[in-house]
Amino acid sequence: MKLVRGDTLVIASHNPGKVREIEELLAPFGIRARGAAGLGLAEPEETGGTFAENAALKARAAADASGLPALADDSGLSIEALGGAPGIYSARWAGPTKDFAMAMARVQRELRAKNRLDSAAKFTCALALAAPHGKLCLFEGEVRGRLTFPPRGDKGFGYDPIFVPDRMEQTFGEIEAPTKHGMSHRARAFEKFARAVLSP
Description:
Maf protein
């Protein structure tokens, strides 16, 4: 499956921060991005046991419902001291209102109970590209780092304000978008996607 300048791609997400970030990554390739919420597409239940399985579910549902190719992202934070949690449940820790301040507070409470506030962690991203009623491709990326409290920075979204990537001192919530786009888990998955799918 190939996408060329001028094509429309559905971003199979109702998370405005995630849609915005993927739109910014697609912009240099001239691909028109449309968020699933803007198209009135329902969010499928995420019943997969991995990031890749959940991304595939979302991409397939959006592509089949819209009749357009769809790109889905399933990503999350895995914390060493919590046995990999929240992992695929990262968004669910934020509750139905997607309150990530609440989710980060829960992470802090659980790590404090283990006396491990400086725990190693990683972000993982799986991107799934689906053609309507057709082929599906998967691309994955990750970035490792450590957690810090209290949260710092108002850029990014989700757990970004508590995650400090390796060899950096700032959180993802403090760094500018172009820097994050060059080294995040989503950027690493997107690089594989772009090499395979996008025309320069």
